[in-house]
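From the shared-data thread, chain only:
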Amino acid sequence: MARITASVYTSHVPAIGAALDLGKDKEPYWQPVFKGYEFSKQWMKDNKPDVIFLVYNDHATAFSLDMIPTFAIGTAPIFPIADEGWGPRPVPPVVGHPELAAHIAQSVIQQDFDLTIVNKMPVDHGLTVPLSLMCGQPPANDFHWPCPVIPFAVNVVQYPVPSGQRCFNLGQAIRRAVESYDQDLNVHIWGTGGMSHQLQGPRAGLINREWDNAWLDLLIADPAAAAATPHIDYVREAGSEGIELVMWLIARGAMSDVSRGAIKDIAGSANSVRVRHHFYHVPASNTAVGHLILENS
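Structure, as tokens:
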């Protein structure tokens, strides 16, 4: 059967993609950010998945205010890079995995989660920046991303948005769906977006280090408690765009320790989830950058 072996969590700040695209990653401002992903790029080479299930939010490129799906799964064989107003990023298109995506859609819908099936859509920085951070910056004309990617878009832009608990439960349903697939595939699930940031209004530029790091610790050690965080706490403590962290809960809910109902110490040999990497940095543009890699033992 297919199996989820690891989860990755990372911010998807658009300025990070611009820094890579313009060759600014060695500049003093950006060096600390990219240094935090050096381990991750080597880890990806050493732990290459067959498929990445990538949870992100669309930024009014595939979807506008005319139509806003709460959860949308990409089932296409290929996803072009979106033009977000200054031309598409110079990276390859994203190859999908229609068979596994269709299976996950079937299974998750039968578990009473309503998904929107998307057979054609462009993907924006919410999806491509995490790929660049984890896989390196490829030339658009002669490189393919390391493996197929299933895009999974979550509405965290226009209220009402899904609760953290709903996202956490959805992650568990996705894990069950993957494990019922009848091919031997190594699947990673990524949760992207966040951390604390606010892009508009009198609190624009808000970054809350203390809250961010406390929430990261909670996500690792007690994800059920992290899932119970109410929307108002994200907005009050992490800014209006801090709500993107609910997407991390989809990835965390898909890990094996959640299904077993036992979150054990992160360093102990009996632990079923192992923390391989933990990184936090401010600022990157006007946001905080958070990053975790968790492995199922």
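The longest helix spans residues 164-179.
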